[in-house]
Specification:
The chain is built from three helices and two strands. By secondary structure, the protein is of the alpha+beta class. It has one domain. Strands 1-2 form a two-stranded antiparallel ribbon. Helix 1 crosses helix 2. It is flat, with a radius of gyration of 20 Å. The relative contact order is 0.09.
């Protein structure tokens, strides 16, 4: 493990988590935790009766879906997919 890692404690959904991160990543990690905690709190208001693990799972699923959608909307990826599609059409024709 790297010696220059920073040990921080963050709070998410009412629980503390200790993380070892690179010092230059601290700001981004803390911002991500803040956003995640806000999303968990939003889930609490919309879906009463669930536990925090359910809310965290729903947030993770939303994040994964958003990431998948973003990657499909990436112009570079779309360009590559169009090139592959054209090559396939050329072979088939």
């Amino acid at each position: 493990m790297e010696d220059n890692l920073l040990l921080i404690t963050v709070w998410l959904a009412g629980r503390s988590y200790r993380l070892r991160i690179k010092p230059e990543e601290e700001s981004a990690v803390r911002k991500a935790v803040k956003v995640a905690d806000q999303k968990v709190n939003e889930m609490r208001t919309h879906y009463a009766g669930k536990d925090d693990q359910d809310f965290m799972a729903m947030c993770l699923l939303m994040y994964a879906a958003d990431s998948a959608i973003e990657s499909f909307n990436n112009p570079l990826l779309q360009d590559e997919l169009n090139k592959l599609s054209a090559r396939i059409e050329k072979v088939i024709a």
